[in-house]
Amino acid sequence: MSKYSVAIAGATGAVGQEMLRMLVEREFPMKSIRALASKNSVGKKVSSGGIEAKVEELTKDSFKGVDVAFFSAGADRSIEFGPAAAESGAIVIDNSSAFRMEPDVPLVVPEVNAEAALDHRGIIANPNCSTIILVVPLAPFVRKVGVKRLVITTYQAVSGQGQQGIEELEKQIDPVREGKDVTPKKFTKTIAFNVIPQCDKFLPNLYTKEEMKLVNETRKILGNNSIRISATCVRVPVFRAHSESVNMELERKVTRDEALALLRGAAGVVVEDDPERSIYPTPLEVAGKFPVFVGRVREDISQENGIDFWCVGDQLLKGAALNAVQIAEYLHSKNAIKK
Length: 339
Ligand SMILES: NC(=O)c1ccc[n+]([C@@H]2O[C@H](COP(=O)([O-])OP(=O)(O)OC[C@H]3O[C@@H](n4cnc5c(N)ncnc54)[C@H](OP(=O)(O)O)[C@@H]3O)[C@@H](O)[C@H]2O)c1
Fold this sequence. Notes:
Shape: globular
Low-confidence stretches: none
Distance between the termini: 12 Å
Radius of gyration: 20 Å
Helix content: 25-40%
CATH class of the largest domain: Alpha Beta
CATH topology of the largest domain: Dihydrodipicolinate Reductase, domain 2
Number of strands: 13
Bound molecules: NADP nicotinamide-adenine-dinucleotide phosphate
Strand order of the largest sheet: 3-4-2-1-5-6-7
Oligomer: single chain
């Protein structure tokens, strides 16, 4: 069996560490692993399941002999170093927003459009975390019923902003509870005991970049530019796992039972839906798990052909590291990683 030389750019980060863990736990066939980060981290070690790598500085020369390069060091680093990695012969699986909307870069969620990964020119993009968590349960409705319009609200964990996001919430909990002032850094306002209706910067249309990623990336992955989408992305004081409330206008009437059947048949979805027993997914229960969990499925009382659902996924795993490793696994299964 082929074994690959693998590099992780951003190996010390929240996503990068999970990437290494996913590669090791899922037994991706590696013959070597190179951990890359900023020069501040040179000499540190990253490890998972007995596999250890010394961190090296990310440079354009980091990719000689590398077969698969996972990028998770922010869009600026992907723009600076991603093309060099691809030119060195590595397949780049990029977690940032740098290349997602480029027409010749496939944007891949393996449960939804795995084959798209085969048609690349050296770079494959991993979608935005909220987009991945949305499209996994959405795909069967788009493909088997037809979706006209979506209204989405996200409830996004602080680890969506990496290690610094996690630390900011941790550090604010005690002072805010004690009534002391805190100075927000990573978030625009105090995140402890609060919710912030802003993820990323505002655009001229007064949506945020995160909200427009959900709109544009969802259409690209599903190959359907006619779905109308409006999203509000909200940061919540949850450490890990994003939740989303999704309202769909469908092409025809779908009952709750039919919607549940569609969801139960969807790859990567687990339905947890029993209102009588208060069974529905929450981020605390979903953190650390692989699938997207769905509950609160119901017929929308405000329109003829509407269905509402609630979905939760671990955004560091399915929303980032796991999805990226699944892309590599798919390429391996198709013998599509150069040797
Ligand atoms: N967090 C999520 O839920 C999530 C989900 C999907 C996608 N993403 C994307 O994944 C990427 C990483 O996110 P994260 O949450 O893991 O962030 P993070 O915890 O802040 O980690 C950032 C990583 O990038 C490295 N880095 C920063 N500046 C660098 C430089 N100048 N040269 C080389 N390496 C540098 C850091 O290395 P040092 O430790 O040396 O600084 C660290 O390894 C981002 O593009 C983000 O948008 C994140």
